[in-house]
Amino acid sequence: MKRVWCLSDSILSPLGRGTAENFSALSGGRSGIRRYEAGSFGAGQAFCASLFDRSGADSSGKPLFEQVLETCTRDAIGRSGIDASSPRVLFVLSTTKGDIECIGSHPENLPLCVPAAHLAAAFHNPNLPLVVSNACISGLAALLQAQRLLRLGLYDYAVVAGADVHSIFTISGFQSLGALSGRPCKPFDASRDGMNLGDGAACMVLSSGDSVPEGAWELVCGAVRNDANHISGPSRTGEGSFNCLRAVLHECEVDELALVSVHGTATRYNDEMESIALARAGLSALPVCAFKGALGHTMGAAGILESILCMRALDAGQIPPTPGYETCGVSFPVNVSEQTRTASGRAFVKMLSGFGGCNAAMLFRKG
User: Fold this and answer.
1) N or C: at which end does the chain have fewer Cβ atoms within 10 angstroms?
2) pTM for the model
3) What is the pLDDT of residues 161-213, one digit of tens each?
4) Pair 187, 324: CB distance under 8 Å
């Protein structure tokens, strides 16, 4: 079976442009989270989020979503050295809502296939791009789909890009569920009271072959499971996340793992569910990290963005901190720290879960 690895990557967020800037900001303890008072973006209540500055106008005339998506993708492709116009290159877009901000002005941009086609066309790629939109697990699901197609030999490279930019649509939607916090979120903490949203884009350029280049990160395997519990709430026994973990752990020894990057939304039920899933999988003692206390929930970008940050952290020999965490507030112990720690191990697992009962996990290993 062909092996698949990450050839290059990039992140664009309110914390910086490019993976290096974002990782440096996080390592330095910076956060993109700020408070927005009631009335901001038309929201009825105050909320905290990590959002791009909307004050400047872009000369391209493209929606902000497409601007950040293309900018991030262009950076990753430039670092990869591939010819993105080749028919042997596939573009995959991961997003939860795409150009939803255009709902009142340009409804023709609403179908998710439209920004995906625009992205591929920007690089003169002749192939029909794929769109993966499966709630908050979209990023990992997109990586898994690309991995499968590369292993089949249908393409030599895949450009997997994820992005979401928030608007009144998502802000009011999560507020109606009582899911947003009016302060920086606190994953797994006893005083957690909700999540923060985050704008962001992330891109990985994937390649395939019979061996992994020295020092590259391999996408070993992934799994998607649905717990069928509730339209917006996870299984109370961690069923979906546990089954994803069980599937990917078949491909490694636990002592290989340096950390688990959890979803860590700081909502009451998500964090509790993940603590149960980790315990059932025998991973309670393994270091755990969550990034949403600094970057917010980047939705369609999250699975790609947070995986890239874990790669860079382990390259630097670090376990990333979990901003906002102080006192454990879940039923089963989780090995979370608000301080950077020294890493040991050459692999990690990324977990995600989302509305509709969807769950995903992917195992990454240093080549």
Assistant:
1) N
2) 0.96
3) 999 999 998 999 999 989 999 999 999 999 999 999 999 999 999 999 888 88
4) yes
